[in-house]
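Suppose you are handed only these lines of text.
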Amino acid sequence: MTEARVAQRGKGVVRAFNEAGVLGVADVHVALRLAQLAGEQSEHAVLATALAVRAVRSGSVCLELGGIRDIGVDVTVAEDGTEVDLDALPWPEPDALLGALRVSPLVVGGEAGPLRPLRLVDTTAGPLLYLEKYHRQEETVRRVLDARAGDHPDVDPDALRAGLADLFPGPAPDRQRVAVAVAAGHRTSVIAGGPGTGKTHTVARVLAMLLRLHGAGLRIGLAAPTGKAAARLQESVRAQDAALGLPDTLTAATLHRLLGWGHNGPKYHAGNHLPYDVIVVDETSMVSLTMMCRLLEALRPQTRLILVGDPNQLASVDAGAVLADLVDRPATGTRTPVVEQAVGADLDAAGWSAAERDRVRGGIVRLTRGWRFDEEIGALADAVRDEQPDRVLELLRAGADRIEFLAPDDLDALRHQVVETAAEVTAAAEAGDVAAALELAERHRLLCAHRDGPAGVSWWERASLEWIGAATGRRHDPDAWYPGRPLLVTANDYDARIYNGDTGVVVRRGDGELVAAFGRGSEPLLLHPSRLSSVQSVYAMTIHRSQGSQYGTVSVILPDERSSLLTRELLYTAITRAKDRVRIIGTEAAVREGVRRRVLRASGLQARANPVGEDG
Ligand SMILES: Nc1ncnc2c1ncn2[C@@H]1O[C@H](COP(=O)(O)OP(=O)(O)OP(=O)(O)O)[C@@H](O)[C@H]1O
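From them, the structure of the protein bound to adenosine-5'-triphosphate can be written out as follows.
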């Protein structure tokens, strides 16, 4: 551990955890400052505070006191490459920790003032320690969702049945039909499913149904956590507007934009509700607890909220995995006879577990049939999701047409594909064929877990450029503008209408000028390179960044099996980016570890609470 990563003021137990890399400098500083303000002396309480700060930093909403050792599992290798012996750390006894917290001024307040930055909550999942802000947000989410679940919109049962029959004339069971009925009959609904299960197809039909039920004046808001996802949602819904009679003016915005976020916080909030009757949020797996809290606060009670996404994907980089929590938590809400009658035949059919029927009652429908997805890749993704490492390896090694599993040094196929894709994209770009260049650039994508290091994006960017240079004799400066240069936008630019995560390609126009082209359905967006301030070449991409997109072939570079980023959610997300073919490059150990290890995201949304320390 370098000097810069050890907090000089930290002592004793906290310092040991800091030196081992389990705690960062910021975790220690925040904990020491809070302890000082509250007049707390207990080493145990300071350690718990630092671990709670650290938990939020790594995506959890709270610290599970019964499982504090788990918090260290993602630090098995220190930055300098040495193994960290977590068992050698002075882990406190859980009871001692809990005892210290129960009387801590950080939890119960003290003579130093009313400051109570921590919240200790006894739940059915054991004691949870929160930073106050996240506890408040989680309580808001729970309160708003519970209130909305207790009250259903008025729906004309005959109109619902007739609409469903028009939109879904096929036989039972049809989960998409159930999803539309549920979205019509509930204030809050969740449409969950893997890629290509027809989530957007279903959303368009939900909107068509609501317009039939409530008339053309219905105010519809479409949103997603990122600009790229919002653009895709808008494109997919618009592609279906004519067939379904949807208005051709529907636009989608980022959640920030929907809420009117400015320097002084959001324009829409609990005191100024969003002016919509229906709000659809796509890619909800990427929505953090904080953003979900803001959105729910800003909703009118009558507004229908439809949350769409894949709960098995990587969650938001900020704290919280709200979509996964909502899908996993015990169903709440009262029965909706209108829905049950309208899709009774679907619900009576085989294939629904008891838990799923409960979820439907709570407004949650999982779409399971893949419409776009190849069966072999779908089976592989399912085996990862269901934690079946032997099955995953069997599928990887089965010699299937669409799945390749290669050792880390077996790079010929990858090299060939990188060189071939670049040649094809460049030929189309030189010829000024924008549509072909954009389509070809999405035929193959190289994905990595890390940004830096030997399994990271920057290393593979350089390797790709070298391979291309060796094959063509033309060595590109990665920052120069050249036809066929694949582009990645790294910041939203609302004026230019390009968003963080957008990908495009440089194309030579008929007059010889170079333009940057970005896919926008049938009409690509063409911009002069001088209009682009935040772009880079994209020969490789992190799996996090690839969320919300799909490619023909995906090559996944697995990191060392000890990498903390290697998790089931990461592997699932990477595999499900592939439409036609997936190539995994890595060791068996890395595959097994990836399937086994889950992202640890503690939250209390799934547990029932019984607060303590309230009166202390
Ligand atoms: N019931 C259906 N009948 C016919 N085609 C369907 C049906 N459902 C979905 N599809 C088609 O399957 C493809 C995938 O559907 P869609 O894009 O809605 O899936 P998705 O779950 O939103 O995918 P992603 O997560 O990648 O956005 C689309 O081409 C869509 O038109």
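What can we learn from it? Residues 176, 193, 195-201, 236, 371-372, 550 surround adenosine-5'-triphosphate (CB under 6 Å). The radius of gyration is 26 Å.
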